[in-house]
Write a structure and sequence with these properties.
Layout lengths: L5 E4 L7 H16 L3 E3 L5 H11 L5 E5 L4 H11 L4 E5 L3 H7 L5 H13 L2 E4 L2 H10 L7 E3 L6 H5 L12 E5 L8 H13 L6 E5 L6 H5 L4 E5 L6 H5 L4 E4 L8 H8 L3 E5 L16 E2 L5 H13 L3 H7 L7 H16 L5
Parallel strand pairs: 1-2, 1-3, 3-4, 4-5, 5-6, 7-8, 7-10, 8-9, 10-11, 11-12
Helix pairs in contact: 1-14, 2-3, 3-5, 8-12
């Protein structure tokens, strides 16, 4: 049976994480030379007509990320009897709740996409489990397609030429409450108040409900939004990268930090853990809302590096984009044939 003709619908132009993933699948399918299509129009009216003309010649539609246009595409796909696959990069409803900006309309749209999709794919195994618990009514059609990692590209991003200061910590996520950077601040305050350390924390990311409280700490340097091209250099100027999220479906920043030479401290609620090897208890935050635990883990990692151990134990071939693209083709083929994945 010939390869299925996949029609990819999703943002691939912006610098966001989901767009980078969509772009990687498009580039990977081009590299393999298999037949596929992707939505190219930017204007709403043009997108509608492109959908009408492109859907009949495709075998399966692959919706990458949340978008209201997905509902139209899924409706048309069903009319034409084309199976729909929905790649979920996150939970719009839940993340809005955590970040204290609930949006009932977005939540309804997301739920309708879950209803209409023939298969729902999470971007990590951890997120798959979370989705099945959150939406048990859809558990039979929820699986996962773990994001690939462009290790070669990350590896080319040079870290600072000089050694990073031992007291310099960094986290990406700004003031979004789900990133729990405020708890990192509380942990550093505990360590600094002992008089044994003078730690600093650099924060990168957009404003959010926790921004004012984070900026109030004297040891915090809040850089706000930063061009992605500058991030590797900034990471290289710091010793330890901390991802303390209570909900992180993947977490590419962790892998970027690792490639830039940072030691890493990660919440157990990060999907990217499945692509990393060599992790130990001291590298993981069990409870992101416990500053005492975070302080103890920071102190332990400042006394001993973990970057060489984790880097050496991580299989970059198994976690690369070639693997992810092969998996996508396999999933689409089974979906077209009506087989369970």
């Amino acid at each position: 049976m010939p390869e299925p003709v996949i029609f990819i619908i999703g943002d691939y132009r912006s610098p966001t994480g989901p767009a980078r993933v969509t772009r990687a699948y498009i580039e990977g399918l081009k590299k393999k030379g298999v037949p596929f299509k992707y939505l190219k129009s930017e204007k709403k009216a043009a997108r509608f007509f492109e959908l009408l003309f492109t859907l009949p010649g495709s075998s399966v539609t692959f919706f990458s990320g949340y978008s209201r246009q997905n509902l139209l595409g899924m409706t048309l796909s069903r009319l034409l009897k084309k199976p729909c696959i929905y790649l979920m990069h996150g939970s719009v409803e839940y993340e809005n709740e955590i970040n204290k900006v609930p949006d009932p309309y977005m939540a309804r749209c997301e739920y309708r996409m879950l209803e209409k999709a023939d298969l729902v794919l999470a971007v990590s195994k951890w997120f798959e489990g979370w989705l099945k618990d959150r939406y048990p009514e859809f558990k039979d059609k929820i699986s996962h397609l773990t994001n690939g990692v462009d290790w070669e590209s990350l590896g080319k991003r040079a870290a600072a030429e000089t050694a990073a200061p031992e007291n310099a910590l960094i986290s990406i996520g700004g003031g979004m409450p789900r990133k729990r950077i405020i708890r990192i601040c509380e942990a550093i305050e505990l360590l600094n108040s002992s008089g044994e350390r003078e730690l600093t924390l650099t924060v990168i990311g957009d404003k959010g409900a926790d921004s004012e409280r984070i900026a109030a700490y004297s040891f915090v340097k809040d850089l706000g939004m930063v061009e992605s091209s500058r991030i590797p250099e900034i990471l290289g100027q710091h010793r330890l990268y901390i991802q303390n999220s209570v909900f992180e479906t993947f977490g590419l920043s962790v892998l970027e930090a690792l490639s830039c030479g940072n030691d890493i401290l990660i919440s157990e609620r990060c999907g990217c853990l499945e692509v990393l090897g060599g992790l130990g208890e001291g590298d993981l935050i069990e409870e992101p809302d416990d500053p005492k635990e975070i302080a103890a883990k920071i102190a332990g990692l400042l006394d001993k590096h973990n970057n060489p151990r984790i880097t050496a134990a991580t299989d970059r071939t198994l976690s690369g984009w070639d693997r992810a693209v092969e998996e996508l083709l396999k999933i689409c083929g089974k979906t077209v044939r009506g087989e369970r994945y």
